[in-house]
Predict the 3D structure of the following.
Amino acid sequence: MGTGSCTPCPETDTFDDPAFARFSIRYCRQENLVFAFKRRGAIMKLGLKTIIAAAVAASFGGAAMADGSLTAVSWGGAYTKSQVEAYHKPFTAKTGVNVVSEDYNGGIAEVKAQVEAGNVTWDIIDVELSDAVRGCDEGIFEPIDPAILPPAPDGTPATEDFLPGTISECGIATIVWSTIYAYDKSKLTSGPTSLADFFDLAKFPGKRGLRKTPKANLEMALIADGVAPGDVYEMLGTPEGIDRAFAKLDTIKNDVVWWEAGAQPPQLLADGEVVMTTAYNGRIFNAVAAEGKPFEIVWDGQVWDIDLWAIPKGAPNMENALEFLKFSTDTQRLADQAKWIAYGPARKSSAPLVGKYNDGKIDMGPQMPTSPDNLKTAIQNNFEFWADNQDQLNERFNAWLAN
Amino acid sequence: MSDVTADAVSSGPLLAADGTPLKRKLAQTTRKAKIRALMLTAPLVIFLLAGFVFPIGQMLWRSAYNPSFSEVLPNLAAVLKTWDGQGVPGEDIFEIAVADLKQSREDRSIGRAATRVNYDLPGSRSLFTSTARKVKDIDGPPYKEQLIEIDKDWDDPVLWSILKRVSDDYTAGFYLSALDRKYDTGGNIVAQEEVQQIYVKLFLRTFWMSALITFLCFILAFPVSYLLSVLPLRTSNLLMILVLLPFWTSLLVRTTAWIAMLQSEGVVNDILVSIGLVGDENRAQLIYNQTGTIIAMTHILLPFMILPLFSVMKTIPPSYMRAARSLGADSFTAFRRVYFPQTIPGIAAGTLLVFILSIGFYITPALVGGQDGQMISNLIAFHMQKSLNWSLAAALGGILLASVLLLYWLYNKLVGVDNLKFG
């Protein structure tokens, strides 16, 4: 009874002796229960086997599929979206290679850890210039031969088509972006117009948002303190200049909310946590254009910089990464990206192709950091200064923060 | 030898059933038991070795051993070790320097050496990277003259004395940095400039905040645990769930819940404004500072105090207090002389747990700490993730480890670790 299969147990009235009946039925049910458990065990074993088999197949399949995918790492939010729309989607449509998008907050720590551990999972990374140079010097990024880049439509070679300084040894620039500051028009009707206003708590009381790094903050502090934009880095090269910049930051220190990710400043403004905040210009533009936020950008003393594609040494899909790099830095693709975010294309030939925002209304030209009106008091981030001094200035900045 | 054996046999030692002497048989069986016990503990031992001893050893090793310079510029490092360190070296050392710089350019490794020198001589990074780019044009003597022509900083005796120092792979420099000290140009240990001092201050703040949080946890947990231990089982179980539920909730969720509660547009401030305690314009700053860190960490660590206290209090028979009262003690004396001393093992366990956990707390101060609520762990993370100065991070970690061990030793002297009771 009940060995090996689940049989229906007899009813009580089929037995003469009621005690024996109870015993038999209980025994039968127990057997059935044991059988049921055994069967479930078998299923679980089967399940485990299937899972292992599937995992093995996936890992082998994954290796086999390597030519079909690519991991592109960028800064998230509106910026990654602009890349997905302008680069990733057309690239997948053209080549069939699936582009996986990952986010990070800048810096080369993560990719350095990957390269040193010999376990690189990223194929191409959007980095700032100072990180591209530093990663290149430390052998973390692959050198890229600019000769592989596509020429402009009129045949100008890429090396002449890119803006000066935007092709570095291990990185190819895509955009020009800028650190600006912005405020909420609906709250400050007669808004600030200069960097000095940003530091003027008497005229514009309220919290300020700043990126938690000395980069760009020191430059802006000096400009606000009356240093001509052209003299900023010369001034920062002296101990007195650094003291002066920190002294200026001191004047607003107690009213600063520090941000780290690019998506934070528009949020801080929208929440009313700050009355004005430094930000990446594209993020503010998108909050205005896509979400209808009443923010206004102040371009005075903007600190502009470039973002580049860099390929880590030992990237698992090197071929795809190079193809993607060539594809995404051609004239049309760079111009397309400007439809989605207010960052200037790194190629001269892209500029005339930049039209309107993807809603077809806002003219993108004046929104760019490279627009002549916006460039009047601008400075370019000096990557060499920061490569030299960032360790020391970061320490001083941390010490200053903690005091 | 044979005499002894013969003697032993003749005197007839005790034999086991199979004829072997009992002593050897016993040794055999206990050895088996020992091996079995060892096999049972082996997974844990291996785990401890691989998960704790090895990484901590690695960390301590990294804090004092940094071969970045001698790996990238091996020949230069070798000759600098024997150089007398006076002034600027001669043509021979410059020739080696040029050769090594050329090689490092080919290997694309100069950045690592430059970073290493830059820790000791801020601002020298580009001297190396830019020289390495230009050095390929030097294809013959005079090397010294040509290198100085590329950058006149190569003629600086301070640079060379620092190069001599970093050519040694073993260094106490990172421990000095971690204690706000540095070598001056003469190789003496001096205090770091005042505007750069941060670590000692942060260590002190970490210990001070941890002590405060431990004390707050104790004050809050003692009555709660007492209540839990004296209430009837049904009620105390319900209350226990209230203690455990947050304990089981993710740390991140609880921290972000505090952000929602304490931010300037948050629940607490809204209530304060609506009952008119503070004006709408000057809402209290309860988060992104030390206050926020202390509030959130006290809440997060509270169960670690309640649970050991509760389990110890549960074992104290209520009759002791009644006996004390019947012998004439007033309720405070009975509490102070009879009840409280019996809870000390629980207090000891709870404070130790909370204090050690809070010393290493990272996520909560990072999220709600703002500027003055940061702890030393946040700076360790900064050097791990942002500045990439892993040696300094390791030195900070080493000091933190040493101070925890010191405190533990002190604690053992004062309270006695045998006196701990987790339940």
Summary: Chain B has 20 helices and two strands. Chain B has three domains: 2-64, 68-169, 199-419. The first strand of chain B starts at residue 181 and ends at 183.
